[in-house]
Amino acid sequence: MATVELSFSALPVHVRTARLIVTAVARRSGVAETLLDEVRLAVGEACSRAVEAHRRHCPDEPVRLELSGADGRFEVTVNDTVPGDDAAGGIPSIEDAEEYEYGLGEATAELGLAVIAGLADDVEIEATPKGVQIRMSWPAEAEATI
């Protein structure tokens, strides 16, 4: 499957559009219908976190998504341009995520990451000086049509 790239202004209203696009691409990539709600919710949470971070720190920068499928997996990567707290590499795992707050407060940041981790089959979070990347993936059983 070719990579689908999406970028949108850091406005909450665009999160719904991103969820709809990701759901359509996931369906065409072979993600089972029973998993589409999980995809939609996890991507919505990751995009909402990125939008809030951008609104606080860099409102003119767009939130970026990459959607791809290969080797029986559908992968969504949500990228923001808000630098992580640790210039050496940021958050190494979800277990350490409470250290990273996006300026929202520890409980909110921890809850959002827990929701994403509970919905996605596989999650990786990376904070760098250039921004935070949340990568989520799910199994894709059917042959991709994109």
Overview of the structural elements:
This protein is α+β, with helices and mostly antiparallel strands and 146 residues long. The protein has one domain (4-139): Histidine kinase-like ATPase, C-terminal domain (Heat Shock Protein 90, 2-Layer Sandwich), CATH 3.30.565.10. The protein contains 3 helices and 5 strands, in the order βααββαββ. It has helices at 13-28, 36-57, 106-119; strands spanning 4-8, 63-70, 73-79, 122-128, 131-139. A 5-stranded antiparallel sheet has the order 1-2-3-5-4, with helices on one face. Strand 4 (122-128) and strand 5 (131-139) form a beta hairpin. Helix 1 (13-28) packs antiparallel against helix 2 and helix 2 (36-57) packs antiparallel against helix 3. The radius of gyration is 14 Å and the shape is globular. The model is unreliable at 86-104 (pLDDT under 50).
